[in-house]
Amino acid sequence: MSETAGGTSGSGGRSREPGPGALDRGLAILDHLAQARNSSTAELAEALGLTRSTAYRLVDRLRTLGWLSQVPATGHWRLGPAAVRLANAAVDSTSLLDAAGPTLRKLVETTQETVSLAVPNGLAMVFIHRERGPRPAAMTGELGAARPMHNTSLGRAHLAALPAAKLEEVLVELVRSPDSPITSATVSALHTEVTRTQERGWAEDRREFDPSSCCCGAAVYDHTGLPVAGISVAGAAERIEPLLAEYGPLVAGSCAELSADLGYVAPAS
Prior knowledge:
By secondary structure, this protein is of the alpha+beta class. The chain has helices spanning 22-36, 41-48, 52-64, 81-92, 96-111, 153-161, 164-176, 187-200, 237-240, 244-261; strands spanning 3-4, 7-9, 15-16, 68-70, 77-79, 114-121, 124-131, 146-148, 203-206, 213-221, 227-236. The protein is 45% helix and 20% strand. The strands form three sheets. A six-stranded antiparallel sheet has the order 8-7-6-11-10-9, with helices on both faces. Strand 6 (114-121) and strand 7 form a beta hairpin. Helix 2 packs across helix 3 (52-64), helix 5 (96-111) packs antiparallel against helix 10 (244-261) and helix 6 packs across helix 8.
């Protein structure tokens, strides 16, 4: 009996397809390695509830086809060149705006408020898309308008999502910039707010940028693990301010969904 790409060849020369679930188990291995980064065959079997023999057979097949490769130092398995090619193709074909549309519309349906998408540009966040909700909004910024990093939910969310070293660099830039009101005497207060944002999972702006509005925001990550955009929910201050604790987790969840669509894999907790 010889093994072929379509399965094993039985009597009469008929090709037998892999049994039910074979594809699912192979994909489960790839998905597990996308999060764990590398694992031994025994660890894969235990994590996915496979027998050792099944795990070894699937790993060998995935290795043969280029979906897995070994880590030289440990012999553990990691995603191989075929998986890398597929991931790169998926990233290249994914537009931030195209991917964000359904997420933003769903958030509008849930909150009934105005939802915006912004991207970082220097020391500001720039609006690139907006879905207006049915409730009145006090927002005045149109697409292309910039919002400062230090006192807006979008800006604080971006700062909170930066790696520690990059965050310190940006804070220094804010202190040095003639266009920023942040000084060496006030930067510690901003740092404290950024820490609160990291702990909370979303950022808040309680009438700080515009006395007539409040908003909450969170960061969107790409496949490299860096923040590339932010989503906010905003509206009239009197209505939104008591709801920030309710809307914040919704915004954070929407950002997590969009980040996953862009190829981001959250670190294992």
